[in-house]
Amino acid sequence: KIAPHLVFRIPFMYPVKSRWQGLLAESFFSAYDFFSRYRNGKAHCWLNREDLSAVLPGVAADFCGAVTFDEWSVQPHRLVMGNLIDAVMHGAEVGNYSDVSKLVTEYRDGRRTVTGVEVVDRFTGARTTYHAKMVCNATGPWSMHFATQNNLSVKLRPAKGLHVVIPKRLFPFGVMSHAIDGRLVFFLPHSGSTIIGTTDDDTFELPDDIVPQRDEVAYLREGVAHV
Q1: Could you give the maximum distance between any two Cα atoms of the chain, in Å?
Q2: What is the tens place of the pLDDT at every residue in 1-36?
Q3: Of 42, 194, 206, 207, which alpha carbon lies 20 to 30 A from 158's?
Q4: Cβ neighbours, 10 Å, residue 108
């Protein structure tokens, strides 16, 4: 509702191999439809084998049909910029290209409390201290490392989600399938590419240090190859 120009619909299909798998899918998507309508999504429908072959040429012979459903994608970078611009229009001060060098803390009633931040401008090197009633550590997968540097703790269980990008658009819709361990994986269109994802493995590496492994790529390729 606040940024419809950044959101676009992605039809998805979930191919099934048996009547039993179809019944399970029907139970799930019948409930899913209730929530989908709040996002202006279309109710699920079923494709028989002939329909599936027509829209997904080359689909494996052991699939007897597919259920369709709606998902949505957003352009995240433009959404972030839109939020920043809107915040400035409402009186916020935005510190692009600034690093928080440390948190400002003090003890209140025997408890250490964060009361502000010290910020360094990347271009000028100038240091500025800001005080606030509340400081939000919105550093995502860096939040544990950032907190540790300031002798604080953030309890997270970080996970690594790997995607494989094919530099062309295979289909105008997404397809879900099962990986070798039973997890759902997908391939979906994104701009002019196709994204295959995702892995979900525990990791305590910093995002800057993560390197895709061959077995992770093979896991994703196998997960969609049998479709």
Answers
A1: 71
A2: 889 899 888 999 999 999 899 999 999 999 999 888
A3: 194
A4: 9
Give me the long-range contacts of 57-63 (CB less than 8 A, separation at least 24). 59/15, 59/227, 60/226, 60/227, 62/17, 63/15, 63/16, 63/17, 63/227
Which of left, alpha, beta for 61 (phi over 0: left; psi -120 to 50: alpha)?
Answer: alpha
Q: Which residues pair with 112 in a beta bridge?
A: 107
pTM of whole model > 0.90? no
In what order do the strands lie in the sheet containing 163-166?
A: 45-48, 65-74, 7-16, 174-178, 184-190, 193-197, 163-166
Distances (CA, A) of 117 to 51, 111, 124, 139: 58, 18, 18, 14
Tokens standing for 49? 């084998």
Contacts of residue 71, defined as CB under 8 A and 6 or more positions apart, other chains included, come to 9, 10, 11, 12, 41, 174, 188
Mean of the pLDDT values across residues 60-72? 93
Q: What integer pLDDT is reported at residue 62 of this predicted model?
A: 93
Counting Cα atoms < 13 Å in the Cβ hemisphere of 59 gives: 24
